[in-house]
Specification:
heterodimer, A: about 1000 residues, alpha+beta, Ubiquitin-like (UB roll), FAD/NAD(P)-binding domain, seven-stranded mixed β-sheet, six-stranded mixed β-sheet, about 20% helix, about 25% strand, elongated, B: about 180 residues, Gyrase A, domain 2, Alpha-Beta Plaits, 2 domains, five-stranded antiparallel β-sheet, 3 helices, Sarcosine oxidase subunit alpha (chain A)
């Protein structure tokens, strides 16, 4: 219910939302949790394993119980914490992990059979029969135990990633954080202040503390206003710093669109920030811990600080008659605040005997709550005092077992927190994250004065390290009450006393782990699943350690903690992958002829990041094969045009350019004449073929190397490695010119005639013989011409600066069409090269040697080259290695498939009999059948042998005859003509 | 006689203005990659003599009249807006790159916010001043970024990636506007 005169919500702004289909009203500034509590809705979820009814436990991001699904359809978001989700008009919220409804959940039967479902139950029970685990047990268990589900549809929301840099990152905007940020900012540092809440201020918005005689939240607003005005400050609210990484790098998730229904075009739902800070100040506050006792999980039982937050920040009392139970002075603030607001208090119970408590309500000293009753809402609590047992009627229990500093981020680089016995809690260890200092409650300093002072002090220290002066900033006046508490973890008694609410882990489970010798804290965690839910054990970790320590007869510091890892709170995978949705996955590289190819109806295929035309369909053609065969015909009979700009082109210059080439290629390049091109083969250090291509000598100290499309980057890296590391004394420089030149293959018997129509100076066989190259001028534009061939035909490659690429492509294609030719795509290109037995990365796939591809003779004996020694190892030149051959079908089946394996004719098609594999296949119009390239043991020695080719995946079996890999014009006369 | 028509990397996709940021294609004139294979000192002296600019230090650029020279990598600089003098060829590889790079200018008040969505390095005004340059990434694309003014940057990516560059920048520009709404 709402409490008059309390809260920071805007009561003039009513907001309507729905929960499980029912409509509710709240106010602007409410979370789903506060608005539901205001409407007396306390049942908000079902527990993970036993489907026990649950309400909110906390008022923040650590919430383990009130997980809901927000939105409908494809954009719905599961496992949103009701304590974090702000309400807006039209917001739709659904409960999860309950069927058929939250109120009546059939799976609650798990709760009745709970004696059998304790920790380790699954490991012990579903061991047999083994095959049943994956098929039967796991799916059933997963369905019963679970969180919310994804819609299964494509996520229509957009996400964003961003980068930020600063001198000082302040994490958490409570009193310590605000004071640190203000000090650092006034001192002239570049500051980012990040806070997970929509409203900065931390506990100051949830308490009735005064600062400088003003209410805490008023002081907060003044400081935030001042910071917002400063150029050197970036305020990031709704932003959770989720991880601390190397070199002052932090991950942070900003909730950009979760708090309003209207999302503008292009507006992200979330933004994942990478923040790099010279220094960081952790002011993340502390989390109140629950106390474990029987049935401490009924809706209506929450932490004492959460009750104060609901009252002071949202103007909501979570009950009509409240009971407070704690082991520290802080808990009494809840009673004082409630009493002042006029809410009835049923009882205040303190586990300590030596405390002085004043209040106009029943007070029990030295007493403990040991059980509760009620179904889907709390009805009463049972307490044990020195006088005996008593039952107190109450609908809300506020409990406090003390505070745990939020040390999580300081553990992300494997730091371990330090146990402080005086506050019975872990605090950050100094230097756990380089450049980070902790201040305030997260450092174990709990008074408001202490937080403000420590915030100012650490900021001053950081300013000093940045070489800046600490500004003269008076410390505001605030309360400085000591934090007094006596440890209280679990109340002795029967039944299940819950520790980890989110994973349904009880005190009994922890004890059972110890009994079964899972005594190490990490083993206990895995055995019981304590701390493994989405809240990462924020509410249960220290409590569980205390119970384990007790059960194993050790102290808490000796028991130690489990490891906190990023993220601090859940981060959607979509946010981490932001920018990579759809085409954002990788850049698209388009050739200059791209639009001309697309206009011609060519389906584009990816080659690395490039897009290349597969084939150019003509009206009447029903299959790609028809187009491909026609395009092959262009090149064999007339002239074909193909964009080959995607091949890597590396300009190599310098007095030692030739020496470099001799060193990286197996064959000799220093002897190549200026104006000539040579084919070259390149090995890796291990002797395996790396890449192949042609290299043209344009001048005495000037070469242009071409690489395959896919290996362009790798070859460039390789050359740089050689030049920088192996021969730094060489005077040579490499420059990629792949992008500078648009290059087109002009191939076929009519290629020279076509070129002479566009070249400013015509060429003939004497001026431009096979493997000649040089500068030329085409239609008034200076370019380069290479007489090289990947089709076996009389062919050229013509290159012009990329700005003229599209224009030249259209001109060449149109002229080719005039003489019975035209453009050809990748399919035809592939057929042409297979017919000639030319290799690609299908053959030089990273496991084959020069010997395997029949090019052992290309490794020059006159010089050394990379890979030469390793390529000569006996195993790499053995005759029975799988070596390159050609093949054609000779049996009834005429189809070949790449990837199929090769066996002796009468051998069984099993792995042991494997004799090779097929790498490339095509239908050859020239041969009239399918042909293939592949590798077979003893390769060339088996020409003429009939073998069996089996493709187990496509269930294809073919009889082939092994033959030389060159099917067409083996003498090569056509290319020279 | 047919004539070859020149086409810029971005064509008519630019300019665009979205919110407080505008994106235009730049005509850089001649662009030459100068990569020292010999002494960088001698090269620098030759550049000073021929172009009035020393070889730039890492992450820096220089300018003289209409010409600029930006650091472009190890031993490498990009000479923009003037044809490279032949004398440089005695110390360095001189390679025409006039058509290799797509060059755009991103300017306006929202520029830094837009780039923060795509560029993983520190380009805050106090750290990355006018004339500072960096080889980095725009999204997944290798890029060169140079600050040309208080609110303007020159961005270079491979010519073949112009479409993706425009798409990525446009998306970031839209997201800034959508956030403000």
């Amino acid at each position: 219910m709402r409490v008059a005169g309390k809260g920071l919500v805007d009561r003039s702004d009513t907001v309507t939302f729905s929960f499980d289909g029912r409509s509710y009203d709240g106010f602007a500034g409410d979370t789903v949790a506060s608005a539901l509590l205001a409407n007396d809705v306390r049942l908000m979820g079902r527990s993970f394993k036993y489907h026990r009814p649950r309400g909110v436990l906390t008022a923040g991001s650590e919430e383990p119980n009130a997980l809901v699904t927000v939105g409908r359809g494809a954009a719905s978001e599961p496992n949103v914490r009701a304590t974090v989700q702000e309400i807006y008009d039209g917001l739709q919220v659904r409960s999860q992990n309950a069927w058929p409804s939250l109120d009546f959940d059939i799976m609650a039967v798990n709760n009745l059979v709970s004696p059998f479902l304790g920790a380790g139950f699954y490991y012990k029970t579903f061991m047999w029969p083994r095959k049943f685990w994956e098929r039967v047990y796991e799916p059933v268990i997963r369905r019963a135990a679970g969180l919310g589900g994804l819609s299964g549809a494509h996520n229509p929301d957009s996400y964003e990633r961003a980068f930020a840099f600063c001198d000082v990152l302040v994490i958490g905007a409570g009193p310590a954080g605000l004071m640190a940020a203000l000090t650092a900012a006034r001192g002239g540092a570049d500051v980012i202040l990040a806070d997970e809440d929509a409203l900065m201020g931390g506990r100051l918005n949830a308490e009735t503390y005064e600062i400088n005689g003003k209410l805490g939240h008023v002081w907060v607003a003044e400081v935030v206003d001042e910071l917002a005005e400063m150029d050197n400050v970036r305020l990031m609210s709704r932003t959770t710093v989720t991880g601390a990484y190397d070199h002052g790098t932090f991950g942070a998730l900003e909730r950009v669109g979760h708090h309003h229904g209207r999302r503008d075009e292009g507006a992200p739902l979330e933004c994942f920030w990478r923040i790099v800070a010279k220094h960081s100040i952790l002011t993340g506050g502390a989390l109140e811990r629950p106390i474990a006792f029987q049935n401490n999980d009924r809706p209506g039982i929450m932490t004492a600080a959460a009750v104060r937050a609901y009252l002071n920040r949202w103007g909501v009392s979570p009950g009509k008659a409240l009971t407070i139970f704690g082991n520290n002075d802080d808990a009494h603030r809840t009673a004082l605040d409630l009493a002042e607001a006029g809410v009835r208090i049923a009882a205040v119970i303190d586990s300590r005997t030596d405390v002085d408590i004043k209040g106009d309500y029943p007070v029990y000293r030295g007493a403990q709550v040991f059980n509760t009753s009620g179904g889907k809402a709390l009805e009463s609590v049972s307490i044990r005092t020195i006088n005996g047992v008593e039952k107190i009627q109450t609908d809300c229990l506020a409990m406090s077992g003390g505070w745990n500093p939020t040390v999580h981020l300081t553990c992300h680089m494997n730091g371990r927190p330090t146990w402080r016995p005086d506050i019975q809690a872990f605090v950050p260890s100094e230097g756990a994250i380089p450049g980070m200092v902790a201040a305030g409650a997260c450092n174990g300093t709990f008074s408001t004065h202490g937080c403000l002072a420590e915030g100012a002090q650490v900021a001053g220290k950081v300013l000093g390290m940045l070489g800046k002066k600490q500004p003269d900033l008076p410390l505001p006046q605030a309360e400085d009450a000591p934090y007094r508490m006596a440890p209280l973890w679990a109340i002795a008694g029967k039944g299940r006393a819950w520790l980890d609410f989110q994973n349904d882990v009880s005190v009994k489970d922890i004890k059972q782990a110890a009994v079964e010798n899972f005594r190490s804290v990490e083993h206990m965690k895995r055995y019981t699943t304590q701390g493994m839910a989405t809240d990462q054990g924020k509410n249960s970790n220290v409590g569980a350690l205390a119970v384990l320590a007790d059960a194993t007869g050790r102290g808490i510091p000796e028991t130690g903690t489990t490891t906190f890892r990023p993220p601090y709170s859940p981060v959607s995978i979509a946010a981490m992958g932001a920018g990579a949705q759809g085409k954002g996955f990788a850049p698209e590289r388009f050739t200059t002829s791209h639009s001309a190819s697309v206009e011609a109806g060519a389906p584009m295929i990816e080659a690395g990041l490039w897009y290349r035309p597969s084939y150019f369909p003509k009206p009447g053609e029903k299959t790609w094969r028809q187009s491909c065969d026609r395009e092959v015909g262009y090149v064999r009979k007339a002239v074909g045009i193909c964009d080959v700009s995607t091949l890597g082109k590396i300009d190599i210059q310098g007095p030692d350019a030739a020496a470099l080439l001799d060193f990286v290629y197996t064959n000799m390049f220093s002897t190549l004449k200026v104006g000539r091109v040579r084919y070259g083969l390149m090995l890796r250090e291990d002797g395996t073929v790396m890449d192949d291509g042609t290299c043209a000598r344009l001048g005495e100290t000037h070469f242009v190397m071409t690489t395959t499309t896919a290996a362009a980057g790798a070859v460039m890296k390789h050359l740089e490695f050689v030049a920088q590391c192996l021969h730094p004394e060489w005077r040579v420089a490499m420059t990629s010119v792949t992008e500078q030149w648009a290059q087109f293959a002009v191939a076929g018997p009519k290629s020279r005639d076509l070129l002479n129509g566009v070249l400013d100076t015509p060429i003939d066989n004497d001026s431009w013989p096979f493997m000649a190259c040089g500068d030329m001028s085409v239609l008034g534009v200076k370019g380069r011409l290479f007489r090289i061939s990947f089709s076996g035909e009389h062919a050229y490659e013509i290159a012009v600066p990329a700005r003229y690429g599209e224009s030249l492509f259209r001109e060449l294609v149109s002229r080719a069409q005039g003489v019975g030719g035209g453009a050809y795509g990748m399919e035809a290109l592939n057929v042409l090269r297979i017919e000639k037995g030319f290799i690609t990365h299908s053959e030089i796939h990273g496991r084959t040697t020069a010997f395997d591809v029949g090019m052992a003779g290309m490794i020059s004996a006159k010089k050394d080259c990379i890979g030469k020694v390793m390529a000569g190892r006996p195993g790499l030149v053995a005759a029975d290695r799988e070596r390159l051959v050609g093949m054609k079908p000779v049996g009834a089946v005429k189809l070949l498939s790449a990837g199929a394996h090769i066996f002796a004719k009468d051998a069984e098609a099993v792995r042991e009999n494997d004799e090779g594999y097929v790498t490339s296949v095509c239908f050859s119009p020239e041969v009239g059948t399918y042909i293939g390239l592949g590798f077979v043991k003893n390769g060339p020695e088996r020409y003429g042998e009939v073998m069996r080719v089996v493709d187990h995946l496509r269930e294809l079996e073919v009889e082939v005859e092994i033959c030389p890999p060159v099917f067409f014009d083996p003498e090569g006369g056509r290319a020279r003509g | 006689m047919a004539e070859l028509k020149a086409r810029t990397a971005c064509g008519d996709a630019l300019p665009i203005v979205i919110g407080a940021a505008q994106l235009t294609e730049l005509d850089l004139g001649p662009v030459t990659s100068v990569t020292a294979w010999g002494s960088q000192q001698e090269l620098s002296a030759a550049m000073k003599a021929a172009h009035g600019m020393a070889f730039p230090k890492p992450n820096r650029s220089g300018s003289k009249n209409a010409a600029r020279c930006i650091w472009f990598g190890r031993n490498q600089a990009l000479l923009i807006g003037a044809a490279a003098d032949a004398s440089l060829g005695e110390h360095a590889a001189i390679v025409d790159q006039s058509d290799a790079w797509c060059a755009v200018s991103l300017s306006g008040e929202a520029t830094e916010a837009v780039l923060a969505r795509l560029v993983p390095v520190d380009i805050r005004r106090a750290e990355f001043k006018r004339g500072h340059t960096v080889r980095t990434q725009v999204g997944h694309m290798p890029a060169s970024i140079t600050r040309t003014g208080p609110d303007s940057f020159m961005i270079l990516v491979f010519r073949s990636m112009a479409t993706t560059l425009i798409h990525e920048l446009k998306q970031a520009m839209q997201s800034i506007v959508a956030r403000r709404a």
